Amino acid sequence: MDLEPMDRWTDRVPGPLLKDSTHARFSTRSGFERDEAARSYRQPPVPIAEMSSDVGPVASTRLDEVRLCLCEKLILQAHASGRPGCHNEVGRDVKQFRTQTPEKEPGSPSRPTKLPPNPVEYEKEVYQKGLQFARPPFTFQTGLWEPHAKERMSAESKGYVAGNAGTGETSLKNREAFARWSIVPRRLVKTKSLPDLSTKVLGQKFPFPIAVAPVGVQRIFNPQGEIASAAAAAKSMTPYIMSTASSTSIEEVAKANGDGVRWFQLYWPTNENNNITLSILSRAKKAGFSALFVTLDTYILGWRPSDMDNGYNPFLRSDQIGVAIGFTDPVFRKQFKQKYGVEIEDDMHTAAAEWTQTVFPSLSHGWEDLEFIKQHWDGPIILKGIQTVEDAQKCVEMGVQGIVVSNHGGRQVDGGVSSLGVLPRIVDAVGDKLDIFFDSGIRAGADIAKAMALGARMCLIGRPYVYGLALGGENGVGHVLNSLLGDMQLTLHLAGIPSADPAHLNRSVLEREDRL
């Protein structure tokens, strides 16, 4: 995992903590997260191999002592484990720590590492940094990501990301559904390594079973918006799904994502605007988006009281929040000028309303309209928003490669079924015929494990990474993704589940609480 070099951490640590051993403890004062002095040195944790010693004579000596202690501890652990070659691995780590290159400067292109990081290492890095008397920059308590993020948001952006349809019943059911399933740990399951989290979807193997879900208007949460989340996804080696409602153009997001795996989500214009749909698909394919997720449940925005209370629709703004793809699309620009006689820049309010009506046309397509998508997209097609066995079976008939069992996080239909609740029956009906993705309600590593055990092959992470984006841009998104993966890996490990493969992670590891 790419994290900040140590010298950029230690110059923010209060001097007494580095110089006086009597202060070698964390501050326990209340309100730490709101303390401005603490904020001044919040930076992400860093692997011990990347710690820089260029921090002055006193701090450098202290860091070297910590390194020595850690290395001695690792060697003792290697002896105790009896693993052949373990001592050499430690030696290589020690030898390399002074030769590691620092993290890239902010703004430079992100590239995924050749080998996937070990998620549990993220935990170890934090404890190693703790030996330098420094706190992690973001909380690891998943339930606090939302309230901490809201402290940094406007009323409008808070209402948008956290809001739900109607009374919020569907969203509540999404979370309650996870509590109805419990993981049953097995003991004395001999292990040779930490669980392998890899999964296979769309004919490819991926190191981790999560993807960054399509979320629009991300610049209302952080000025970097989609640029930050796309870069973080590439670093974490998780696929990035770009939303049609992005506040950044297709081409800019592709550049930020670099060599990462990226997929495109389509809010589907009506047949009268097939020329615009074709232009969007062409741009996405040219920019390296390899799979297409077509959202079926959002041809009009749901009844969202929190947005209405604020009088806030981010898609009607004229500052390209949510309309960037349209405003940069040559076909839409030409069509707008023909209709209104002016360029988009001359009447951006009208242009924003026109684009919003184009991608949220209020009317739904029919199954037969999928033929157009199939004719003009030569990669995998995944239909998002499936909640019934009948619709899942129809997807199989239409010849698409995957579905997302999703209720849009409870943002579209109030009083709906929980997404996890319908997952098992859909898996039973079509799980051997196409790839099943899942979203709606995931907040922790155990949630991912449960959805995978019930038959999903990959989970989409939505609101949690948006909270990370609000808290710390690219680093905040990376923290959320790495935390969820580390949490999941340890959950499987401690439950005696050796991998995320369906041979190991399946319904046999779960029990319904109401049956206990």
Give the tags:
516 residues; alpha/beta; TIM Barrel; eight-stranded parallel beta sheet; two-stranded antiparallel sheet; 21 helices; 12 strands; 43% helix; 9% strand; Aldolase_TIM; FMN hydroxy acid dehydrogenase domain-containing protein; FMN; LMO_FMN; flavoprotein
What does this structure look like?
43% of the residues lie in helices and 9% in strands. The chain has 516 residues and is α/β, with parallel strands linked by helices. The chain has a domain of 343 residues: TIM Barrel, CATH 3.20.20. The strands form 3 sheets. The protein has an 8-stranded parallel β-sheet. It has a two-stranded antiparallel sheet with strand order 1-12. Helix 7 runs antiparallel to helix 21 and helix 10 runs parallel beside helix 11.
Strand content: 5-15%
Instruction: Round the Cα radius of gyration to an integer and report it.
Output: 24 Å
Output mean pLDDT: 84
Q: Main beta sheet: strand number and arrangement? A: 8 strands, parallel
Low-confidence stretches: 1-76, 78-113
Helix content: 40-55%
Coarse shape = globular
Distance between the termini: 40 Å
Write the layout of secondary structure elements.
Layout: H1 7-10, H2 15-19, H3 36-39, H4 57-81, H5 86-96, H6 121-130, H7 142-150, H8 155-162, H9 169-179, E1 181-183, E2 199-201, E3 204-206, E4 210-212, H10 225-235, E5 240-242, H11 250-257, E6 262-267, H12 274-286, E7 292-295, H13 305-309, H14 324-327, H15 330-340, H16 348-359, H17 370-376, E8 381-386, H18 389-398, E9 402-405, H19 419-430, E10 435-438, H20 445-453, E11 458-461, H21 463-494, E12 510-512
